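Protocol step 4 of 5: obtain the predicted structure for the target chain.
Materials: sequence only (see below). No template structures provided, no constraints applied. The aim of this step is simply to have a reference model before the mutagenesis design in step 5. Sequence pasted as it appears in the construct record:
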Amino acid sequence: MTRRLITGALIGAMSAAFSAGAAAQANPQNTGYWISVQTPPETNVWRSGNYGDPRTSNLCWRAGYWTPAMAIVECDPDLVPKPPPPAPPPAAAPPPPPPPPPPPPAPQVQKITLASKALFDFDKAVLKPEGKAAIDTEIIAKLRDVQKLELVLVTGHTDRIGTQAYNQKLSERRADAVRDYLVSKGVARDKIETLGMGKTQPVPGVVCTMTAMKELIACLAPNRRVEVEVKGEGVRR
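Step 4 output (structure tokens):
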């Protein structure tokens, strides 16, 4: 839209006629335009007539000192800075992260104690038939229920009769004999560890004070044992 600029002699003439009234009635926002003292300050900007050309009708008269910074939206809407767009609404908070999955169940450990009397003859490390049957029932059958086998620990123990060095070797041979039998029944050899404790870990509460060897051997029988610990990820129910 074109705007009519009042310059030169026309400005001088109009300023003589209206300067006093304009100063008294001007809306501070309209000070870049010629104003009328006849109308309220909100609508007191002088506007042009039609003069036969609708493109020039109702245009605001700018003062000679007018600058684009003095533009008002009623007269020069294209020159007035547009208000900033409204700020977008705050983004919705993201949903909380899902809870972490529960930790896997801790590996379970089953400890099975086999009496040496059932496994071996006294002072021997060769499995007896009834000893193999005990291993089948107490260990092999239970291993089938373990979901993921991690470790089978076989520990041999002896009674106090004899030296520690002798009993250490005897306990190791007995643990190895049980390991070999487990391997023959399909248990992976690399899952089995053997350990001999000799006579260092007697069963608590077993007190034998007799002097006769036969009676002493019978009394100390609970100490002559093999313990098998089975460790797996879980046990089927």
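Step 4 remarks: The longest strand covers residues 108-115. Residues 8 and 117 are 131 Å apart (CA to CA).
Proceed to step 5.
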